[in-house]
Request: fold
Amino acid sequence: MIRTTNPTVACLLALMLAGCSDVNDFKPTVGMTATDIFADACSSCHGDGGSGKFGFLLKVAGTETAAEEVVAKIRHGGRIMPAFPNIDEEDAVRITSYLKTQ
Ligand code: HEC
Reply:
């Protein structure tokens, strides 16, 4: 008989359905520029200045995604990308303009 209550399987299923996104508690300190925030909070996944990792993967520099969507992505996360609830709207807008001019 196939056991359907296997905890590992249940856990994997839950992860797949809920997405793997998490919350990142990074909080910018007063006076940080968008460049600093990006370097500290984002470049580990998106590369220096958003240039991507391993070539083009996760490149966000010069993104053509609408500004509101980028701001929402930062504040609420994506399917994989963590949410940054401590980056306020104003900083998210500044990071977005920074990315668009990269
Ligand atoms: C843990 C890794 C990780 C971190 C840290 C991270 N991201 Fe992401 N980001 C991703 C992944 C993976 C995707 C694509 C899949 C998704 O949306 O979850 C993504 C997608 C994006 C997109 C959408 C792509 C596009 O061109 O529209 C933007 C914009 C973005 N990230 C900006 C940021 C910013 C700004 C930060 C820092 C505040 C950040 N990310 C931090 C992993 C990360």
User: Anything to note?
Assistant: Helices lie at 7-18, 34-46, 67-76, 89-100. Residues 41-42, 44-46, 58, 60, 63, 65, 70, 73-74, 78-82, 84, 87, 95 surround heme C (CB under 6 Å).
